[in-house]
Design goal:
Elements lengths: L9 E6 L3 E6 L5 E4 L2 H6 L12 H7 L15 E4 L7 E5 L3 E4 L3 H6 L3 H9 L2
Antiparallel strand pairs: 1-2, 2-3, 3-6, 4-5, 5-6
Length: about 120
């Protein structure tokens, strides 16, 4: 599988005994199959899967027109409902792609963001 942003090969990275994600060998973005990012969001130390340079990831975040690495269809650029400064690409059928540093940010929702989300529900 190739990276949807820079087309470098993706390599498998394992969390725990039964979770494997794909990380780009070039830009260090991360591909999560359906449901994996949500499962890992609350897992202790899972942010260590996100080994890439967040500054480089922010530059790659400008690339929003990219294909799903599984099916080739154009993915949707989605703003996280609770943290709208985070934008990631998603394929409704296969999963989501975070640029380097985005998954760590996704995991570490601030108290302010939690209170804002609570007040807007």
């Amino acid at each position: 599988m190739d990276c949807p942003k820079c087309n470098a090969p993706m390599a498998e990275a394992t969390y725990g005994r039964n979770m494997t994600i794909d990380r780009c060998t070039g830009c260090q973005g991360i591909w999560f199959d359906l449901g994996e990012a949500e499962q890992l969001k609350d897992k202790w130390m899972s942010e260590f899967l996100d080994t890439g340079n967040a500054k480089a990831g922010k530059a790659n975040n400008a690339i929003t027109d990219c294909a799903c690495p599984r099916c080739g269809k154009t993915m949707e650029h989605i703003k996280d409902a609770d943290q709208p400064h985070i934008g990631y690409e998603a394929c409704a059928e296969h999963g989501m792609y975070f640029d380097a540093g985005e998954f760590t940010d996704f995991k570490q929702e601030t108290l302010f963001e939690k209170m804002t989300a609570f007040l807007h529900r």
